[in-house]
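New to this. Explain these tokens.
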Amino acid sequence: MNTRTALVVLLATTAAASAAITGTGGACTQIGAPASALPGALIGPPAYAWNEQLNVNTASTAVNIAANGFFSGGPFSTFAGGLFDSHMIHFDASSGVAMVSGSVTFNSNIIAVIYDEALLSASDATFGAGGTTYFNNPNRSYSANTMSPGTWLNIVGNTISFDLWAMQPGNYIAEVRVLTHAVPTPGSLALMGLGGLAVARRRR
């Protein structure tokens, strides 16, 4: 393989690696980070999923879930710091359809999930998409660290499945922020690849 061919393969591989959401199922659709996640901006069903931030370095973060399993609520938790990617699942039931079922698969394992309104708002500055306006309001998503009856999340490796109920008095939005392990950025992988090519050429 010559240098030019190797670079083409490398760039194709790194482009795929940077696509953090790799698939959606059920009534869930992937979109680019929207300008607005305010009520009425993304009326569903379906639920919408988008990538927020890549390679966020954080010491520790308060989350609702930090384990695999089936959850319909749970205590606050924290997880150790590191390098993470963040992603949003958003369901706006303003249309009157209260429930949506779906799944999202990522290119790396799920480390933590945030669904509580207070924790979502607190983490927007760190993990939210820079060009997106979020609903920073007490009626955003779930509150008091409990989900609506019938809501559940199932986390297995790099996939999260869900039933999200959003119809509550004064609350028509359900949101889940998912944190995954960051993968090497295309730039860093490209530099590693170029270094390897240089070594290979010297060996010849």
Observations:
- The radius of gyration is 19 Å.
- The first strand starts at residue 21 and ends at 26.
- Residues 22-30+41-182 form one domain.
- Residues 2-17, 187-204 have pLDDT under 50 and may be disordered.
